[in-house]
Structure formats: structure tokens, C-alpha cells
Amino acid sequence: MGRGVEWAVHSCVNMSWTPPGEAVNSARLAELYKLPAAYLNKQLQALVRAGILTSVSGPRGGFRLARRPESITVLDVVLAVEGPEPAFRCEGILGVVPDADREENFVRTCLISQTMRQAELAWRQALARQTIAGVAGSMERRFPGDRDKTVRHLAAGPP
Amino acid sequence: MGRGVEWAVHSCVNMSWTPPGEAVNSARLAELYKLPAAYLNKQLQALVRAGILTSVSGPRGGFRLARRPESITVLDVVLAVEGPEPAFRCEGILGVVPDADREENFVRTCLISQTMRQAELAWRQALARQTIAGVAGSMERRFPGDRDKTVRHLAAGPP
User: Looking at chain A, which residue has its C-alpha nearest residue B130?
Assistant: First the structure.
């Protein structure tokens, strides 16, 4: 999994803190976390395509959440950044064994494939149980000053 | 996840079927599944390093299971091939925010990191519930002729 997932989730948390209607400048966000601005921007564009963020143009433009943070799960963000493909893809090598039934759907019938799919499902379910609002709430409790500092930094406009 | 995982699990299943004490020739195994022999051999060497297979030298040499198939889980094989690192690695970007406590252990205290670890754990638990013996048994029931065909093919020695 790329580093973009961590950046993307933190970015969404920060956007959940900005005042309603205000957009976050991605260069400012990159500066806050000392991240490469172009690469961060690429992750945020992926979140726009997934319907998690909205891109706002103009001098006060940037990105903001497209839905309420309660309805954005960590899984939504991970799949937006990493793509929807499961980690394991069955290549059906049982089907190349001499005399094998090549029409067989091994993804359904092979226990290796099933086991990998069950594990992927368990992973996704765990990520789907946590939302951006949940992460944001936890951070407000654990790191009390961070929310206000972040909002002030991001409100300053383009760096 | 690389294709090597699928090959490695199928290889272990086949080795669970070969008569006790006999080694499987990896070129013969590659031929059975029409896989690149050098790359398959690399996966099998990784399984040797992980204590899952034993390498046997000599003209009838090759690989055999180092332990009983009941005590080899799919997780063992996946970690041997893919490495033991979790898919998500927290880079602690909260620690670079101005005035952040850089001594903070964000892997423990940040809910993003915790959520990713819980998901990884759920994934590993699902893979740890299935063994090579379980997969082999399922294949014997689902594809009744395959075991004998495979054993005959592999017993023929180097291709």
C-alpha cells in the first residue's frame, strides 16, 4: 500500500475541521505535513473522482468534503487511493493442469481463492467500520490543540 | 500481492499429496502449471527460508514439506512469499505538524494507524484459519481426479 493512503485520510480529517463551504488549498496542506505537493494533489484528485471530495476553483479554491464525514469510511478513502482491485487475484492455474476443465470458475470453487477473498472481506469490513468523523473525534480527544492549529494554518490561504 | 502466492499455495498442496520422503522437482511442478521455472523456484526457496519446505539435493532432489500440512496455514505461505511487513506502514505525519510532539508514538495513539492495524489483523486471522491440509482436502472433494493425476505427473522425475 502506498504512502498516499495515510496522507489522504489525514487530509479528509482536516477538511472535516474547516468551516462549512470553505475549501482547503492543497499546497497549504502539503506544507503542513511537509509532503510533495504534486503527489498529494494527485491523491486528492483520486478522492474527487471517488465522490469523497469536491474540487473548488477560483482564488479561494481547493478541496472540501463532498459528503458528511460520518458517511465517509476509511475503506472509501483506501479504495479511492489504491483502486478497487482486491490484493489477491486468482489466475486460475488449476485450469492449466492437463485434462483440467478450463470452463471451471476457480474463483468460486477453489478454496485458496475463497480463503483469500474471505481475508480481503475481513480487511475491508474492518476499514469500513471507521469513519472520517470517528477518526477526527479521536484526534480531538487525543491531541487537543491540533484541530485549532490545523484550521488556522489552512485558513491562511495559498502559501 | 504478487502471483507467487497462488503458485506457492498450490505447490504446498501438491507436496502434501506426494508419498512421504519423496521430493518434488520444481521444474516438473513449473511444467504442470506452465509457470516460469526460475520464478517458481524463487518462491519455493522463500518457503524453505520460512521453514515451510525442505530442500533436498541429489538426482531425486527437489522440495518437500518441512512440517505436516495441518500445521502450515495459508498465512504462513503468504508471509513467506510476500514478507512479514504489514500492508500499511504509518509514517507518523502527525509528528511533522508545527509544534507537534515528535516523541509521540503515533502507531499506538493515532486512530488511523490503529484502524489499519486492526484491518491487517483481521486479514491475517482469516488466512491463519485455513491450512494446507484443509485446502488439499477441499480439492480432493471438489476435483476428485486431480490428486492422482498430479502425483503421477510429479513422480515422473525431472522433465
Answer: A115
Q: Which residue has the cell 527460508?
A: B49
DSSP state, residue B120: H
Task: Please answer yes or no on whether B93 and A124 come within 8 Å at the CB atom.
Answer: no
> Could you tell me the CA-to-CA distances from B35 to A39, B42, B153 in Å, in that order?
37, 12, 15
Q: Give the separation between CA A118 and CA A123, rounded to whole angstroms.
A: 9
Helices (DSSP H) in A50-145: which residue ranges?
A: 74-82, 106-109, 111-128, 132-142
pTM of the predicted structure, to 2 decimals: 0.89
Tens digit of pLDDT for each residue in A61-120? Answer: 999 999 999 999 999 999 999 998 888 888 888 877 777 766 778 877 889 999 999 999
B115 contacts A127? CB cut-off 8 A: yes
pLDDT of residue B10: 94
- Residue whose C-alpha cell reads 511533522 in the numeric block: B96
The helix (H) or strand (E) run that includes residue B12 is helix B4-17
Sign for the pseudo-dihedral over CA of B51, B56, B57, B59 = negative
Domain at B4-84+131-155: CATH code: 1.10.10.10
Pairing of the two strands A53-56 and A62-65: antiparallel
Look at residue A59 in the predicted model and tell me its pLDDT. 84
Prediction ipTM score: 0.88
List the single residue in A90, A118, A139 with the smallest CB-CB distance to B111.
A139
| Per-residue pLDDT tens digits for B91-149 | 888 887 777 776 778 887 889 999 999 999 999 999 999 999 999 999 999 888 888 88
SS3 call for A122: helix
Count helices and strands (H / E) in chain B: 8, 2
